[in-house]
Amino acid sequence: MNGPASDPVADALCRAIYFDDIPLQQVFTTPGRTITEADVVGFAGISGDFNPLHVDEHFARSTPFGGRIAHGLLVLSIASGMTTRLPVFAALQPALLGMTSVTCSWPAPTRIGDTLTIDLVFTEATVTRSGTKGLVTEQRVARNQDGVVVLESTWSLLVARHARNVTV
C-alpha cells in the first residue's frame, strides 16, 4: 500500500534549507500584524526620526495624507521581522550567511491601525564563483487590510550550499 504523495516544500520545511533547496516562485504569506501608536512612537525614539508627519497629528492632518502615517523604515523593519518568522525562513537560518542588499519603495502610506501581511517569494538563485554559496533574490511585498500594497522590496541574501553539492 502506498502512502500519500510527498510534498517537497513541506518536506524541506522539516529540515534545514540550503541554497540548492530554495523553493523558487512560491508565495509564502505571513499572518497579519497591526501597526500601533506604540510602534510609531517607539520607532521615532529609537531612530531619532521625529518628522511631524509621523508624530504630530495636527500637522499631519494638513498634509495630503490627512493624518499621521508610519515611518517607511518602520514598515520595512516590521516586514523583515514578520517574514523571518515564516517556517520557510526559519528553515533557511542555518545556511543564511547575511543580507547583501535591499531596495524598496512605498507606493502607499501605512496608517496607525493598518493590519499588514507580507508575501515572500524567492525569485532567483545564482551560485557564486566559489561554488560554496549563492545569492538568493527575494521579493517581500506588504499589503494592508484592504489589499493595498504599502511596501515593495527586493532583498539579496548570501546563502551557503549544502556540503553534498559543493565540489572542490
Range of strand content? 25-35%
Overall number of strands? 6
What is the CATH homology-level superfamily of the domain at 14-35 and 72-165? Hotdog Thioesterase
What gap, in angstroms, lies between the N and C termini? 42 Å
Reported by name, the CATH topology of the domain at 14-35 and 72-165 is Thiol Ester Dehydrase, Chain A
Helix content: 25-40%
Shape: elongated
Low-confidence stretches: none
Overall average residue pLDDT: 92
What is the SS-derived class? alpha+beta
Major sheet size, sense and barrel closure: 6 strands, antiparallel
State Rg: 19 Å
Give the name of the CATH architecture of the domain at 14-35 and 72-165.
Answer: Roll
Summarize the structure.
This protein has helices at 8-13, 37-47, 52-55, 57-61, 72-84, 87-92, and strands spanning 27-29, 33-34, 96-105, 115-127, 133-143, 149-160. The chain has 168 residues and is an alpha+beta fold.
Properties at a glance:
27% helix, 168 residues, 6-stranded antiparallel sheet, 6 helices, Thiol Ester Dehydrase, Chain A, alpha+beta, single chain, 6 strands
